[in-house]
Amino acid sequence: MGIVILGLNASTIFIIAGLGELFSQKSGVINVGIEGVMSIAGLVAFIGAQTTGSIWIGMIFGVLAGGLMGLVHAFFSISLRLSQILSGLGIWLFGIGFTSYYGRAFTGPLMVPSIKTTFGLTLIFFLGIVLIFFFQFLLYKTHFGMKVRAAGEVPSVADAWGCSVIKIRYLCIIVGSMLSGLSGAYLTIIYSELWSAGVIAGRGWISLALVFSSLWIPILLLGTSFLMGILWVSMFSAQMLPGAPTFLMQMIPYSVAILSMIAYSLIRARGKTFMPSALGEPYYPED
Amino acid sequence: MGLSLQRRKDANTGTSLIIIFIGLGLAILSFSIVFLIAGINPFIGFKEIFLGGFGDAYVLQQVVKDTAPLLFVTLAFLLPSRAGLWNIGAEGQFFLGGVGATGIALALSNQPSIVLLPLMALGAIVCAGVWAFIAAYLKAKININEIVLTLFLNWIALLLVKYLTVGGPWMNPEGRSESKAIPLTGRISVISGTNIPVTIFVAIVAAILLYLIFQKTRAGFEINAYGHNPEASVKAGINAKKVILISLTVGGMLAGLGGFHQSAGVIGRLRYDLTSGWGYYGILFALLSKNNPLWAIIVTFLSTGLLVSGAQSLQYDLGMGGGIGLLFVGVIIICFVIPQFLKEYTISWK
Fold first, then answer.
1. Residue A221, C-beta contacts closer than 8 angstroms, at least 6 positions apart
2. Residue B79 domain flag
3. Looking at the complex, does the CB of residue A250 fall below 8 Å from at least one CB of chain B?
4. Is A279 within the bounds of a domain?
5. Which of A37-46, A210-219, B166-175, B194-203 has the lowest mean pLDDT?
6. Which 187-206 residues of chain A touch chain B by CB within 8 A?
7. Per-residue confidence (pLDDT) for residue A278, from 0 to 100
């Protein structure tokens, strides 16, 4: 049982960060800088919690830092029409550089009492589950969700309907990035309870891969995140010797993501799509 | 009331120069802020970057040594980019080059140099080429997004190298996180009197060749045409699949040569820090050189001096923390890409 609980706590990171990325991608914008967003939010949250002595104030700091990074990404990729990939890579490198440079002074364990757990699970885990169902409902059962999906599938048609693709994409990126920030904050101040450079350890990139393996459907993301969480803790659990085999296991999320992309592409040839059709494509209303 | 954008019709050399100066100005301003926050006089900071990049014969030698792998990854982005494709995978292809070279070296360690070195180079080219071909084939055949694909392949490549060298089959018997050493017969010779592997010449020749290919040959013309307007060029009889397969795969092979240089010329073994983000620096350098292979030689050399070596000396000589180099690269991307946009659009309030 123990490993399942540990796995669920680890999966919370992927659930929330992946959901943020999924929401952003549904509107047609990919953010490959999610690892950088999580690093910055994780550091800001850690500093916030360490200085105020409150985990929850730290969490709020992290979410706001994530939102700010989302605003930057939205400004670059939508207003300045910079390539989404380039903007994301810039945010990633900047985030890693910024946090390893400015975070050095804060390296160490968190000196704030841990939050309560229920059956070994924290409140954030349950929040993650609620968020999954909330976004599932929002995306597929509401008028607003339809607009978001339209912005990611056929932005020109969405614009013709009278919804502003620019506004929707801005909103989705910022909200999505706030979720990534929440995940980064959870990782440093609740899950690991420490800050060190590289503490995110590729989990932002894995979250990105999980979105590609989950058909862009929140409930499926919940499932893949559970599996990834279990995989993550079993890689680092005491029974397993450190070293070579764990590296092969860490390839799984990326390999599955690639295989999923191949599968989608083959199925798409028969007239079905999963991936938002306009993903990665800039949209210029006046052109 | 709001911002309104209009595409400029009259972008010319004059505006290009202004753009470069705006970019430089923004970069200098942002770096100054970083220095001031760190309590360092910006003039001393900039002086340190220049001295750390080009200050004396020794650092200059280091910079030339690092220019080779960075020029290879710059070209690895540049070539497919001419065809409108984004090869974000140079990082992984570089690693695969190291895997190919080291694998051959360890397997054939008793062969003389004359046999071993060419085979190692071939191993690097083949491994990296295959890695890039996976993305190229899937892009050409079923139109999978090459950007996301090459990104994921980078992480698999890094994990493959970790698997081989950290506790895996190629691990150093003394237990360090690196492969067994490449035998001395498998080391790339250096320019006499220096520690610069001769592969720097291969990188420069590759850049010049690419330039000539783009200028003079039909293949180069087809790649450019496809990059410029895919639909029209296909109608004009250009084979899109061939362009995608060749430009991405050859790009990957170039990155692989970078891995060969670094493992067999500099480090003498395979390590998971064989490249730490250099594959991504190449994207920036290629964009800064406007996808011109000749410019790429100069831009890569200058950027390597300032951003790799110069930033490192900030760390060692001024005591600024690790990560300062990455921070500067992130800042540079932002500083030079925003003015690019200003070149293409005019902004006005309405």
1. A15, A18, A19, A22, A132, A210, A211, A214
2. yes
3. yes
4. no
5. B166-175
6. 197, 202, 205
7. 81
What pLDDT does residue B177 have? 84
Tokens of B59: 């650092």
**Partners of residue B243 on adjacent β-strands:** none
Arithmetic mean of pLDDT, A25-34: 94
Find the domain containing A16 and state its range.
Answer: 2-268
Substitution target in A207, A251, A287 with the highest count of B β-carbons within 10 Å is A251
- Give yes or no for B348 touching A (CB within 8 A): no
How does pLDDT run across B263-289, given as a tens digit for each residue? 999 999 999 999 978 999 999 899 888
- Residue A84 forms part of a structural domain: yes
Q: Give CA–CA dist B128/A111, Å, rounded.
A: 47
What is the reported pTM?
0.91
Tell whether A274 is covered by a domain. no
Mean pLDDT across the stretch A35-58? 96
Q: Tell me how far apart the alpha carbons of residues B57 and A193 are, in angstroms, rounded to a whole number.
A: 47
Rounded percentage of chain B residues whose pLDDT exceeds 90: 64
Task: Give a yes or no: residue B186 inside a domain.
Answer: yes
Residue A240's pLDDT is 57
Tell me how many domains chain B contains. 1
Determine the pLDDT at residue B1.
Answer: 42
Domain containing residue A16: CATH number: 1.10.3470
Question: Between chains, do B159 and A250 touch, taking CB under 8 Å as contact?
Answer: yes
A60 lies in some domain: yes
- Cβ contact, residue pair A242, B167, below 8 Å: yes
Give pLDDT, residue B85: 93
Q: Is residue B22 part of a domain?
A: no
Share of residues in chain B with pLDDT > 70 (%):
91
Looking at CA atoms only, how far is residue A121 from chain B in angstroms?
30
Q: Model confidence at A282, in pLDDT bands (50, 70, 90)? A: confident
pLDDT at B344: 62
Residue type, A133: F
Q: Could you tell me if B166 lies within 8 Å of chain A, comparing CB atoms?
A: yes
Structural domain total, chain A: 1
**ipTM computed for the complex:** 0.89
Distance separating alpha carbons of residues B78 and B121, to the nearest angstrom: 21
Asked whether the predicted pLDDT for residue B35 surpasses 80, the reply is yes
B346 touches chain A (CB under 8 A): no
B65-86 pLDDT, tens digit per residue, is 999 999 999 999 999 999 999 9
Report the run of H or E that residue A12 belongs to, with start and end: helix A2-26
Q: Identify which of B138, B148, B323 has the shortest CB distance to residue A212.
A: B148
Give the mean model confidence (pLDDT) for residues A191-207. Answer: 93
- Determine the pLDDT at residue A243: 60
Whether residues B329 and A93 touch (CB distance < 8 A) is answered with yes
Flag if B144 and A104 touch (Cβ within 8 Å). no
| Six-digit token string for B216 | 């003079």
B319 falls within a domain: no
Q: Is B280 an interface residue toward A (CB < 8 Å)?
A: yes
Given a contact cutoff of 8 angstroms between Cβ atoms, the answer to whether B185 and B105 are in contact is: no
Backbone angles phi, psi at A113, to 5 degrees: -60, 140
Q: Which domain holds residue B248?
A: 67-295
